[in-house]
């Protein structure tokens, strides 16, 4: 019998509309919040990527969306901004036990930032075959040579996350 959540050799995202998924389902509400954050990037002409950081208890610590166009800052990716805000909220650069939820698979810069911040878990929606560093193009976050490797849960609301990006680029 074939597992409906198994991934292909091409790292396609699991079908979020498949039967109940005890691994991904608990993250859907947080991903919906990240999708709302992503939509905030569009008025400035930025790619709609949104992120939230949850504390060890599941409490919302911080949010972020791409602000590169609005700020002229090449590092103003949703993940980096959310991690910075979570660290400021906690008064500590280390974020042990925290979860980063993001609509798009992190790039190398963002993957490095989440590893460096000691985030316990990465949850993402759409894979990024062109720049993803959490399993698609690279797998920086689970590289055994690094001192910290977060748990990775991919494909949460993947279709909704991908659709938001596709719609943005179609309108450009």
What does this structure look like?
This protein is of the alpha/beta class and 172 residues long. Helix content is 30%, strand content 16%. The protein contains 5 helices and 5 strands. Residues 1-13 have low confidence and may be disordered.
Mean pLDDT: 91
| Structural class by sheet pairing and helices | alpha/beta
Give the total of beta strands: 5
**Unreliable runs, pLDDT <50, ≥5 residues?**
1-13
Query: What's the SSE pattern?
Result: HEEHHEHEEH
Largest sheet: 5 strands, mixed
Rg, rounded, reads 15 Å
Intertermini distance: 43 Å
Number of helices: 5
Q: Please bin the fraction of helical residues.
A: 25-40%
What is the 3D shape? globular
DSSP strand content: 15-25%
Spatial strand order of the main sheet: 2-1-3-4-5
Blueprint (SSEs and pairs):
Blueprint: H1 28-39, E1 50-54, E2 60-65, H2 68-71, H3 78-90, E3 99-104, H4 108-116, E4 121-126, E5 151-154, H5 158-170
Parallel strand pairs: 3-4, 4-5
Antiparallel strand pairs: 1-2, 1-3
């Amino acid at each position: 019998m074939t597992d409906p959540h198994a991934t292909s050799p091409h790292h396609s995202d699991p079908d979020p509309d498949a039967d109940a998924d005890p691994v991904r389902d608990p993250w859907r509400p947080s991903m919906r919040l990240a999708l709302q954050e992503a939509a905030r990037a569009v008025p400035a002409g930025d790619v709609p990527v949104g992120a939230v950081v949850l504390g060890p208890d599941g409490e919302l610590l911080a949010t972020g969306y791409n602000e590169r166009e609005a700020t002229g800052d090449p590092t103003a990716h949703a993940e980096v901004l959310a991690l910075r805000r979570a660290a400021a909220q906690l008064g500590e650069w280390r974020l042990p036990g925290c979860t980063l939820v993001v609509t798009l698979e992190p790039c190398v810069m963002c993957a490095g930032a989440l590893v460096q911040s000691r985030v316990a878990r990465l949850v993402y929606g759409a894979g990024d075959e062109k720049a993803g560093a959490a399993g698609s193009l690279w797998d920086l976050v689970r590289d055994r040579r690094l001192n910290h490797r977060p748990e990775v849960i991919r494909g949460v609301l993947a279709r909704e996350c991908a659709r938001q990006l596709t719609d943005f680029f179609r309108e450009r």
